[in-house]
Amino acid sequence: MPVMERIQAELDSHPIVLFMKGTPEFPMCGFSSRAMQALTLAGAGKVHTVNVLEEPEIRANLPRFSNWPTFPQLFIHGELIGGCDITLELFESGELERIVSEALVP
């Protein structure tokens, strides 16, 4: 499957997707760690993550797919929310909790 289709398939299969460096248990950069922590504190539960360090094709192509140059990248219902800074701003304002709770409603 071509990489752009693989990225879309990840987004179509999960309400919340975080493309990050490392894993939730072992983040490999501070930005990914802080974004994951904000999602956890916002009540996201088990977020679907993609470790871009283990997926070089996704790491190389996701910035073109999303038009966002850095990692992590948070998507909710297939829509790019942003990177670490935006995720933290949303968390601090209380918006992330609302967005996450709405995304997890079946």
From TrEMBL:
Domain (Glutaredoxin): residue spans on this chain: 16-81
Domain of life: Bacteria
Keywords, alphabetical: 2Fe-2S, Iron, Iron-sulfur, Metal-binding, Redox-active center
Keyword Ion transport: no
InterPro entries in the cross-refs: Glutaredoxin, GRX_PICOT-like, Monothiol_GRX, Monothiol_GRX-rel, Thioredoxin-like_sf
Family of the protein in this entry: Belongs to the glutaredoxin family. Monothiol subfamily.
PANTHER family in the cross-refs: GLUTAREDOXIN FAMILY MEMBER, MONOTHIOL GLUTAREDOXIN-S14, CHLOROPLASTIC
UniProt protein name: Glutaredoxin
Organism in which the protein naturally occurs: Pseudoxanthomonas gei
